[in-house]
Amino acid sequence: MKQTQVCVVGGGCVGLTLALGLVKANISVVVIDAAEKQVLPGDEYGLRVSALSLASQHLFESLQVWPEIIAQRARSYTHMDVRDQDNFGKIAFNSDELDLPHLGHIVENDIIRYALINELEQHSQATLMFDTRYQQIHQSDNDVFITLDSGEPVIAKLLVAADGANSAIRKQFNLPITFKDYDHNAIVATVKTTEPHNNTARQVFLPTGPLAFLPLPDANTHSIVWSTSPEHCQTLLAMDDSDFNKAVMAALDGQCGLCEVQSARTAFPLKMRYAQKWVEGKVVLMGDAAHTIHPLAGLGMNLGLKDAAYLIELLTADNKEFASNRLLRDYERTRKLDAQKHIAMMQGLKELFAGANPLKKLVRGVGLSLVDNLGPIKHLFAKQAIGK
Question: Residue 230 maps to which CATH number?
Answer without folding.
Answer: 3.30.9.10
